Amino acid sequence: MRKHTLLLIGLFLVTFQCMNAQGSPDYTGGLKFNLNEDGLKYLRVISWAQVQGNYNLDDTFDANGNENSPFNFTLRRARVLMFAQINEDFLILTHFGLNSLTSATLSPTGKGDGSQLFFHDVWAQYNLGANHTVGGGLHYFNGISRSNNQSTLNTMTMDNHRQSWATLGLTDQFARHLGVFAKGNFDKLQYRVAINDASASSLDGRTAVAGGAAVYNGRASLGSKAAGKIYAGYFDYHFLDQESNFLPYKVGTYLGGKKVFNVGAGFFLHPKGSVIDNGSATAPALEGEDVSIFAVDAFYDAPLGEDGSALTAYVVFQSSDYGKNYLFSAYGTGSMFYGHVGYVFKGDTAKTRFQPYVSYGAHSYDAVSDNRNTLGIGINAFMSGHNSKLTLEYKNENFGAIDSNIISLQAMIYL
Fold it and tell me: Are strands 286-303 and 310-321 parallel, antiparallel or unpaired?
């Protein structure tokens, strides 16, 4: 094992000891400012930061052939979320920040693209009685699966499973769409549905080639009338404790604070979202291909007795059709299985707690014979629940010629 790997493990232990010695209060819901005596009019602010040290076990090189440093730092997330309730019927939410700031995306004066803050969410909503809500704006009420609606505040693994954010950058702004939504529950069945505009820009900027695979830029290629709308939804039945759907962000682990067992199913439909070229090199003939993604999943989180131990488990199967032989970055027409499980050791729930976990994903693509497999093994140290947390994780990704092995240490604090 190389010296930088030992350094990361050492940092995990040293930082844990320092933070544990300092202690921290148990913040549970951000900072709330009541604007009237009964608290029905308020402003709540939540802020969080995640900083990583990443060690790549494989040798990599830059565009000039120079060997890259195996050990690097990343500001993974820096976010501020604010929401205000005018009265019991109206709410407005604003969420802004930046992601994955590295030495390669820093700029001398902080004006480069990688250094810029941007809005992740901005929406307003109106309650239709006690159990149903409608709203609109730049929102995160996504379809498909629980992991496509994952909160980054309380993930169990170091980060969300990348392929589960199934349209990030293809039709949206960082997993958020501009549109309208409805959410609520019928007894133990919760729902969220949305009609959104597809983004006119896409990370998939390729040009469809005659006789080739689909390209996901139907809105740009065919126009907004033909390919401008998206339909999404997610439904989950809560067999045990009921989870809140006040905000769209799904909890990754409750550390045994609830007894939850949910089974869900969801969808994402984008008519003519992708295009293929059925013409020739001299006479292109673009045709739209419908994009459809469906998933079923299950989530379990519960204490194991009265000693503070707890189990968290999640599994999802996703079928993705992005068009004929589509393959771009982590996305592709095919199927995906992903699951993770974590165990919180017994102990005083008011003190530091440890949670080892393992995750595994298998992804098959129509376009190629190779599968993409991902394996994560890690441990969380919770000093004050998710409000003060250290995570050490080994991540392997294997796909064709890619065999990536990275050890990461992440420190997170949120108030």
Answer: antiparallel
CB of 48 closer than 8 Å to CB of 70? no
Q: Could you tell me if residue 168 is left (phi over 0), alpha (psi between -120 and 50 degrees) or otherwise beta?
A: beta
**pLDDT tens digits along 127-167:** 999 999 999 999 999 999 999 999 999 999 999 998 999 99
In a domain, 82, yes or no: no
Residue 223 located in a structural domain:
yes
Q: In this structure, what CATH number is given to the domain that contains residue 243?
A: 2.40.160
| Percent of the chain residues past pLDDT 90, beyond the cut | 80
On whether residue 351 sits in a domain, the answer given is yes
Q: Is 16 domain-assigned?
A: yes
- CB-based burial label for 144 (10 Å; 0-12, 13-18, 19+): buried
The structural domain count of the chain equals 1
- Which positions ≥6 away from 292 have C-beta within 8 Å? 267, 268, 269, 270, 321
Residue 7's pLDDT is what? 56
Strand-pairing partners, residue 356, are 379
Domain that includes residue 201, residue range:
3-31+42-74+122-414
Consecutive H or E run containing 336: strand 334-344
Q: Are residues 324 and 290 in contact, defined by beta-carbon separation less than 8 angstroms?
A: no
Structure tokens at 296: 């079923």
Q: What are phi and psi of 113, to 5 degrees?
A: -60, -40
pTM: 0.92
Dihedral sign (CA 260, 308, 246, 144)? negative
